[in-house]
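Journal club side-thread
Mid-discussion, someone asked how the predicted structure for our own chain would compare to the paper's figures. Pasting it here so we can look after the session.
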Amino acid sequence: ELMEQVDVLLVDKTGTLTEGKPAVTALAPVDGVEEEELLRLAASLEQGSEHPLAQAILEAADERGLPLHASEDFESKTGRGVGATIQGQRVILGNRTFLEEEGVDLPASIEVMEKLRDEGATVILLARGQEYLGALGVRDPIRDNAKQVLADLRDQGLRILMLTGDHERTAQAVGAELGIEEVVAGALPEDKVQCVERLHSEGRRVAMVGDGINDAPALAKAEVGIAMGSGTDVAMETAGVTL
């Protein structure tokens, strides 16, 4: 009943518009760090995570036959990154904001990663202690039918916004490929909720599509929450519809 009245569709990117099967496409260690050590540390850290990007890193390490380090004190900061103690040192992996909050001194050279973002890749940064070690580029293929589905929905009069925790340039690259003009990047869970609330204040009726833990609050806030069946249990619990 409510779905029939919806006039705005908010769409998460990763695992929703994309296949949710990301793969590591680039490794960019700093001088003095081997590619394999960068990947080994990242994978060792991600052993405790169920995130799609974590799975991509673990698969890349497995393909290269890299033995992983033991890790302890794993912690996850939703929308920012993860951390753990490896070989007695704190290692963190996440976005630029997270590393800066942790006091890591980032070199100007990480700007080379912008090229990866322009290709639609997610860039993840790794640090040990306060030392920046390098970056990984992870790309998640766009679903084959996504562009046509969005075009069909627009033809039915729906306004479509893409919400993503990803970097602005990555988000805009994916948005351009799919013909989405309204893109909100760098969105934390609370930002997604605020977007729903803002649309409500404009008198709009909102459906939200997502698959992750960070989508759950917005799925609950929208008139209709729609979860991807390939996503997290909490998204499916929260949403009114599961695809």
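Post-session note: The mean pLDDT is 91.
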